[in-house]
Amino acid sequence: MRIISSCKKSVLYLAVLAASSSVHAASTQSTSSAIVLESILIKADSTDETPINNELLQERVIFDMKNVFRLKPEITLGGGSRNAQRVYLNGVEGSNLNITIDGARNGRNLHQHRGGFGGLNPDLLKQVDIHSTSGVTSGPGALGGSIHMTSVDAQDLLQRSGKVDGIGARIKTGYSSVDNGKHGNISLYGMASDQLGLLAHISADNRGDYETGSGRSVIGSAGQDRDYLFKLSLLDAGNHSVRAAVSRNHNEGLYARGSHGSDMGYLPELQTGPSSRVRQETEQDRMTLEYHWNPANNAADFRANLYRTENTLRYPGSAIEDIRTEEIGLSINNTSHFNFTSLDTALTLGMDWFEETAYTNALNMGNTLVWPDLTGQAVEYKSENLGIYMESITDFGPLTTTVGLRLDHYDSDYGPIQLKGSKVSPALRFDYALTNEFNLFAGYSEAARGSGIIPVGFLGRLNQTTTAANNQLKAETSKQHEIGIRYVSENWPLTLHLKAFDTRLDNNIQTIGQGSAPLGTAGIFNSDRLDIEGWQFNAEWTAGFYSTNFALNIIDVNYNQFPSGGIRRMTAPTGDSLVWDNRWQLSEQWLVGYTLELVADLEDVPAGEPERDGYHIHSLRTQWKPNPDLEFGLAIDNLFNKRYANHTSLYSAVTGIVDEPGRDIRLSLTYTF
After folding, report:
1. Among 234, 493, 495, 576, which has the highest number of CB atoms less than 10 A from its own CB?
2. Read out DSSP for 569-636?
3. Do 651 and 610 form a contact (C-beta atoms < 8 A)?
4. Could you tell me if residue 509 is inside a domain?
5. How many helices (H) and strands (E) does the chain have?
6. Do the Cβ atoms of 536 and 387 come closer than 8 Å?
7. DSSP labels for 594-605?
């Protein structure tokens, strides 16, 4: 790992400065009593759970998923406009993560990246679990880790508003200056019985083209989002709990499509050809059912999740038919706690299964000049995965061991090519308590997948002449290592966490970029090896009304042993980054906050691509509650209107690199009754 550049030294210098500020806070901590609020957990692995106040989304005045992860430097959501955003976890693109909402997988990309991450209103989030290593319980396709999101229940909203029963409603409206955005939602919730809660939610967001720090308007970034959720939650009915939900996210806009500009740069004022803007709509529909049985004994803690999803991409007014996927899935697991030869053990047995069917149209070979002219014969492709796993966690006093084994059986359809097989993936973890305050840990895990990262729209280029490179197609695999130390003070409200990690991905299933040409000989191939290594440091401190969180993430990304640029649906160098967040709860009614984001220069770039400048972003926020039912929020992101581009944004020699939004003043007003 190379961390000797001047900008990286600046990152380390600020790390020391922030740490010293935290120590100073210890000596001057207020005697005011801490205000205890219910917590949302946006958490990483078991040694790095970070509780974040459940008012996180409201106090930061968040209107999109991009800002949910601002405090986690290991997660980057870059790319500019809503339709171009991609999520990366430690440099691994979201197509190689297992991303779920209420247990339902997000599914594959529909075209380029459309239909990928992002189909949820942040106000509906209850909890986000982030696992940067795979592990046998992370679910199918978790080559680089997983992100599991859970939506709120009616009971959560009642509790948040200070009620325990009856009915309630929440109305929220907001405005964002950088894109002249108008935002609003309404939630109705209540208890139909002592245990049964009902929730109905609808939200609307209208955004114009946003402006960068240089004042330039990003053409094609305007759009609309509509979110709908109806959820039933029967909780603590004896030993049983049931949650059932139906939801829809609808996004539309006049977005760029194809070639330069679709996901990497600015469109010219007058667009022609494949870089022109066309009306696009994406729709994500989910039906989820969760059952939890936890009787008053150690033998059973049983969970089952059943879901059906449908993702659709439409081009209204175009001859191109809808591109869509339908998926059904099921997961079942049970954890038993027992004492074996005086050793406390938790044993989890489980399975997960999904079947995804992708629908698109083949290329119309009578018109190969228009890319891609998907007006030919309707085609469909199936991908299926069955996973069976076991995990044992055993306590040997100061040493806790986690041993897991997972078997994945995959069956994926690539037209004339079928990829079918099985792979066993182990996972090991060791946690050793040096003292009551210091804990050492180390872990290793593997994962496998057969579904690839080819967007559904690209599957229309398959034909009977398509062959795999070297006449073979292998399953995708990953290997991950981590080692670190965690300190939790018994005398001070201080937590420190340091770890080093590396991730290796092999054999990502991709296609050759040939524009409108069909995929013929060697049209599908296994990618070269991707290596990501790095380290993370995190410090948390709470002193009365003041709390601070400092997080540093330094990584190197290499593809085929050379520095990597952005590789669609696979990886991007996210850059060495630091996030320092501060929060002052001045009273029960008023809080203020400040966040610094610092990203170092990106100097290790592929040949032919420019080095990328680092940047530092300052953000402020405040929240005022004149009474329990009324809440005002103000947030200013990119306070000094810095012009910058996220390092994960794709580079084009024609259009350059798209800049991120400039100064954004966001306002919100929430009324609960």
Report:
1. 576
2. TTB-----EEEEEEEEE-SSSEEEEEEEEEE--B----TTS--B--EEEEEEEEEEEEETTEEEEEEE
3. yes
4. yes
5. 3, 34
6. no
7. EEEEEE--B---
Rounded Cα–Cα distance for residues 601 and 265 (Å): 20
Establish if 174 belongs to a structural domain. yes
**pLDDT digit string (tens) for 349-400?**
999 999 999 999 988 766 655 556 778 889 999 999 999 999 999 999 999 9
CA distances, 533 to each of 311, 386, 453, 530, 555 (Å): 34, 30, 22, 10, 6
| Percent of the chain as helix, strand, coil, to the nearest 5 | 10, 55, 40
Task: Name all contacts of 138-141 with Cβ < 8 Å and 24+ positions apart.
Answer: 138/98, 138/447, 139/98, 139/100, 139/105, 139/331, 139/352, 139/387, 140/98, 140/105, 140/352, 140/354, 140/385, 140/387, 140/408, 140/449, 141/96, 141/97, 141/98, 141/105, 141/385, 141/447, 141/449, 141/451
- Distance separating alpha carbons of residues 429 and 401, to the nearest angstrom: 6
- Rounded CA-CA distance 562/141 in Å is 25
Give the whole-angstrom CA distance, residue 115 versus residue 111.
8
**Residue 26 in contact with residue 592, Cβ under 8 Å?**
no
- The answer as to whether 1 is a domain residue is no
Which residue shows structure tokens 């420190």?
A: 496
Per-residue confidence (pLDDT) for residue 653, from 0 to 100: 75
- Go through the chain and tell me how many residues it has: 673
Report the CATH number at residue 38. 2.40.170.20
The range of the structural domain enclosing residue 175 comes to 6-672
Residues in CB range of 416: below 8 A, 6 or more apart: 462, 463, 464, 466, 467
Q: What is the pLDDT of residue 9?
A: 39
Q: Where are the beta strands (DSSP E) in 7-85?
A: 39-43, 51-53, 75-78
Written as one letter, the residue type at 103 is: G
CA 624 centroid distance within chain: 29
Beta strands in 450-511 (DSSP E): 476-488, 494-506, 509-511
Q: What is the 3-state secondary structure (H, E, C) of 511-529?
A: ECCCCCCCECCCCEEECCC
Domain assignment present for residue 479? The answer is: yes
pLDDT digits (tens, 9 = 90+) for 507-529: 999 987 655 677 888 889 999 99
Please count the structural domains in the chain: 1
Coil vs helix vs strand at 463: coil
Distance from C-alpha of 249 to C-alpha of 102, rounded to nearest angstrom: 14
- Which residues, 6+ apart, have CB-to-CB distance to 36 below 8 Å? none
Tens-digit pLDDT profile for residues 643-662: 999 998 888 777 778 889 99
